[in-house]
Amino acid sequence: MGTSLFVPSALALILWTAAAAERPLPPPLPVLTGRGFTGVVFPAAQARGERIDQPEARDYWTPSPADVAEMESRLPSALVRQRHADDRLQGRSTGARRDLHVFRSHHIGQILDHLAAYRRQYVGIVVQGEKRLFVNCFRADPQQHASWRQHLVDVDDGGLDYWRIQYQVDRKRFMEIDINSDG
Questions:
Q1: Disulfide-capable partner of 167 in 27, 42, 71, 116 (CB 3.0 to 4.6 Å)?
Q2: What span, in angstroms and rounded, lies between the C-alpha atoms of 107 and 112?
Q3: Do the beta carbons of residue 155 and residue 162 sit within 8 Å?
Q4: Taken in order 146, 147, 149, 153, is the CA torsion positive or negative?
Q5: pLDDT score of 164
Q6: Across residues 107-122, what is the average pLDDT?
């Protein structure tokens, strides 16, 4: 009985994968470069069709190059502040919470050492009426993610090679960094 349920599911997955492979990719987005960063901005219309792991996002907007440059100019110091906060919290935490602060502090240090090596994907999201810049970052061989200029890179595990952060545009403030587990 379990097999009969599996076969249709497996067949549906195969058919869905084949249909997705036949869909033409959207044209590559133009590359935006600046001091220490390379990335692409996803227009709001294209972002709506992407799988963004941000369930609180209610709408999308298209970030300008100036929005990205402003955020990027603040990113290194925000990461340093987050690392220092995690260092301080390690001594005051126990168990899993302490492990999180140790993990993040260690990984943020390594991210800072190679910050320019990460490709970025910028998506404008709206959460509770507030404009945020969702930044998806990955450090990998561009051949591994050949369609990074067309679709968001979404990887399970991978450790410090894959991380995300949100920037509150009007407040000019970063939200907590989210780093993939080492798996």
A1: 71
A2: 9
A3: yes
A4: negative
A5: 94
A6: 95
Least confident interval from 14-18, 36-40, 89-93, 126-130? 14-18
Give the Cα separation of 40 and 31 in Å (integer).
5
pLDDT at position 134 is: 96
Mode of pairing for the β-strands spanning 173-174 and 37-42: unpaired
pLDDT recorded at residue 98: 86
Mean predicted confidence (pLDDT) in 38-62: 89
The answer to whether 133 and 104 have CB atoms below 8 angstroms apart is no
Q: Which residue has the tokens 């800072």?
A: 112
Question: Which residue is it, tokens 């590559």?
Answer: 28
Q: What residue type is 14 in one-letter code? A: I
What CA dihedral angle connects 58, 64, 69 and 71, to 10 degrees?
A: -10
Q: What angle do CA 63, 51, 82 make, to 5 degrees?
A: 60
> Among 142, 133, 139, 129, which Cα is nearest to 159's?
139
Pairing mode, if any, of strands 119-127 and 37-42?
parallel
As a whole number of Å, the CA-based R_g of the chain is 18
Mark out the alpha helices in the chain (DSSP H runs): 2-22, 44-47, 65-90, 95-113
Distance (Å, rounded) from C-alpha 137 to C-alpha 124?
A: 15
- Measured between alpha carbons, how far is 149 from 75 in angstroms, rounded to an integer? 22
